[in-house]
Design brief:
By secondary structure, the protein is of the alpha/beta class. It has 24 helices and 20 strands. Strand 14 and strand 15 form a beta hairpin.
Amino acid sequence: MRKIKSAANLERAREQIISKQKKYAAVISVCGGTGCQAYGCAKVKRAFQRGLGKEKLRGRVALKYTGCPGFCERGPLVTLYPQNIFYQRVKVEDVPLIISETIQNGRKVEHLLFEDSVDRQKIISSQEIPFYRSQMRLLLKNNDLIDPTQIEDYVAVGGYQSLAKAIYQMNPEQIIKEIKDSGLRGRGGAGYPTGKKWEECRKTPGDTKYIICNCDEGDPGAFMDRSLLEGNPHSILEGMLIGAYAIGASQGFIYVRHEYPLAHKHAEIAITQARKSGLLGRNILGSGFDFEVETAKGGGAFVCGESTALIASIEGKVGEPRSKQVHTVMQGLWEKPTNLNNVETWANVPLIIRQGSQWFSSIGTEKSKGTKIFSLVGRVKNTGLVEVPMGITLKEIIFDIGGGPKDGKAIKAVQTGGPSGGCIPAFLFDLPVDYDSLTQAGSMMGSGGMIVLDEGTCMVDMAKYFVHFLREESCGKCLPCREGLKRMGEILDGITAGRGNRESLFLLEELAAVVADTSLCGLGKTAPNPVLSALKYFRPEFEDHIDQKRCPAGVCTALIHYSIAEESCVGCGACKKICPTKAIAGEKKQSHRILSELCSQCGSCRDVCQVNAVWVQ
């Protein structure tokens, strides 16, 4: 794309790109996100390239390698335009059929369409699939239209128009007021008002100011920021440009953890393209505004998601937090005023500038505006990225979008907010999803991780997992976090091993309060949340482990015992065949039995039993 020197130039460039795109009779969008990469989408894309060449369709059919449209478990995903046909679980061998049937003859390939599990009807358009139907996709809506390595695709859907509006039609104070009026709160976890943070940074004296995009997403099960940066990097860059203009910053950084190579690659490509196009660097859009961005790779430490630790990491120091007596908007990167927001927060900015604060604030609840992206994972039928309006209930997300329980087991709870969040029980699933409601329930919004748990989950084991995760990720700088989490993990180890007593629960709660009150940074202060929420809502499970030496969910190996019901066993031998310790005896077509002295409680016999004859007690 040629260098753009004015707002009028940008509009002309958009019209020219759209005109060129109209020469294609059809567009094939192959999801190139990390999830679909794991399913082999690169081979599918190459098959389309070969097939289009073979059929001499390359000049008439466009092939795009796009960002993640969200329904990750159904990958590789392929969408065909203009018919808007959504194909899922596409294999290389399906490609010739798609080309001959759909592209050349307009017919659907039935076995690739999504089938509704209730009425068994085939669904053509993604918007009609239950997973998508209840969502409000504002930030993710262009992911399957845009090749993230092509700036022209972003400009074609109106990209950088908000930047032009901000620079030529608004002054910095008006931009900040618009963001404040929108009610946008930081999507990284704390939920601090974005406009207020920008205003504080702008008012802080200083000739040099920085802005940072936080893409250090360390929560287990979370991949919202990664997918946004992979799929639509220019939207984040545009948000940062608007923020820099409003705050008065001339330098920015996109901090990406090294486990996100595709996100880093696409961010680098976007920066290079924007610079060549006159949308980044010196004299942006011919306005005299200068701003530069570069990427910074993080080592993958969970604590580097905390602002002061992240800043230390960019400075080349050990990624450890510091006391926030002086906030980073006053003294941040290299002790200069610094504004830090996460990927999702920056991506919201162009939408607000384009459509106005009133439009944005009309979505959501009184104190939580707009939409929120969650990575919905765990024991539900439909998993992936979901974008929903604030105020939607947990029940709607888990049952309407997630499709309910995966294996028929009743859903027991949902973990929100990652390892620093908490477990919310099923009887509170009418709770609206917003910052304040989740906090009142003992959890938090966090960056958007949402793990659904069913009755096969032991809540003591779950609390133990998160405490151990956080202990291993603790930087060790402050004693309460370093030693407190270690001791909490030891207590939970004891309870799940059958060594706990009532004193253990008292110690656990006391330690949790000390860690939360006295730790230096947010990691330590919120680390006890999973334990405290599990104790609050699932205390009888802890007591069963202590008093009865029994794990009700059948998870804690030291407290369970496997047996085979004679009346149910058909003697198929599947359990005997898979048992790694040869702990199952019995002849073919006769009842089998478990030799308890050899059993390792791995549960593989229960997993393979087709007649549910294996019991855990």
